[in-house]
Amino acid sequence: MPVEPPPTRWELPSTSGDDDLVAFGADLEPGTLLAAYRNGLFPMPIDQLLGRATDLAWWSPNPRGVLPLGGLKVSRSLRQSTRRFEIRVDSAFADVIDACADPSRPGAWISTDIRRAYERLHRLGWAHSIEAWTPDGRLAGGLYGVAIGGLFAGESMFHARQRWGRDASKVALVALVEMLRAEHPVGRLLDVQWGTRHLASLGVVEIPRPEYLSRLRRALELPLPPAFAGHAAHKAK
Predict the structure, then answer these.
(1) Least confident among 48-57, 74-83, 134-143, 146-155
(2) Which domains does the chain have, with CATH numbers?
(3) Above 50 in pLDDT, residue 237?
């Protein structure tokens, strides 16, 4: 099971306001990150100087993007793509987050500090990657996020730009939904932060923040899905 880190030394801000941006500052210690997710917050640097991510910001979108586990839209072509890849969990977490952090990607926001923080969460057993591999052993795409009880908080996804990487990130998402639907899925919550047109095409919907927080509280009381409960935590460095 995941290793519970020392608690955060920060008092978390209220999410009672209307703005998506809730607060600045604090740190990226494991205890702070877990406390944030348990209270409906997540970190994302905000660009303020020469286009560089300089200030750590904490967000709680209103409305919040979630993917209902029974609402994933899988087209015929995507279903065919699922047969082209092998799905693995946590076999290349660092490679997945590095690919997601590629600065050449539009809207790149994953800083070195963010990457290190989630790698540490991974070693403690809280952060996970779902990966799509080609038959000849190439990492074609994947996603990563944080699993706490029945919550999976998706952070980012990627696919290789070459032709063999087509649909790989969506295939990883299909696999994630199947993992979350395994063994008593009622109450589990797949958080994608913000809804976008692309995510809406896959079944993502937006719900008011109070509804999200209510569903979050119920999800946190649930056990981890089997796909993540069986992955042993590693000692943090």
Answers:
(1) 48-57
(2) 65-228 (3.40.630.70)
(3) no
pTM of the entire structure? 0.93
Report whether pLDDT(28) > 70: yes
pLDDT score for 229: 85
Both tokens of 1, joined, read 């099971």
Q: Tell whether the model's pLDDT for residue 95 goes beyond 80.
A: yes
DSSP sequence for the chain: -PPPPPPPSSPPPP--SS-SEEEE-----HHHHHHHHHTT-EEEEEEEETTEEEEEEEE--SSEEE--TT-----HHHHHHGGG-EEEESSSHHHHHHHHT-TTSTT----HHHHHHHHHHHHTT-EEEEEEE-TTS-EEEEEEEEEETTEEEEEEEEE-SSGGGTTHHHHHHHHHHHHHTSSS-TT-EEEEES--HHHHHTT-EEE-HHHHHHHHHHHHTSPPPHHHHTS------
Average pLDDT score over residue span 207-229: 96
Q: State pLDDT tens for residues 29-51.
A: 999 999 999 999 999 987 644 44
Burial bucket for residue 55 (CB in 10 Å: 0-12, 13-18, 19+): exposed
- Identity of residue 81: S
Burial class (CB in 10 A: 0-12, 13-18, 19+), 103: exposed
